[in-house]
Design goal:
- The structure is a single chain.
- About 20% of the residues are buried.
- It contains 5 helices and 3 strands; from the N terminus they run αββααβαα.
- With about 90 residues, the protein is α+β, with helices and mostly antiparallel strands.
- It has one domain.
- It has a 3-stranded antiparallel sheet, with helices on both faces.
- Helices cover about 40% and strands about 20% of the residues.
Length: about 90
């Protein structure tokens, strides 16, 4: 199964993944994961990122943290998304 994923262009298990938080132009925060922070932030600003950020451009990367792998990044993303907005702001702007 892992070979099948690798053949489809999935990153290898050793590639770094990141949890990131963007501040949108309306002051709201968006949380996501990626393995390329620069490219992903650029895609958001081009209006080709998440639906949420398309109407809230430009966005600014305000926080990121490295995760061991994609699974760990997804778990961390779910944890951060469950935080109340004030706690998310504390994390992003500490």
């Amino acid at each position: 199964m892992l070979n099948g994923l690798k053949e489809k262009g999935e990153p290898s298990c050793g590639d770094p993944w990141f949890l990131y938080i963007l501040e949108c132009n309306d002051g709201s925060l968006y949380t996501g994961i990626t393995n390329d922070l620069t490219r992903r932030t650029q895609r958001h600003n081009e209006g080709k990122g998440a639906r949420y950020t398309r109407t809230r451009c430009p966005v600014k990367l305000v926080y990121y943290e490295s995760c061991e792998n994609r699974s760990a990044a997804l778990i961390r993303e779910a944890a951060v998304k469950s935080l109340p907005p004030s706690k998310k702001r504390d994390l992003a702007f500490k």
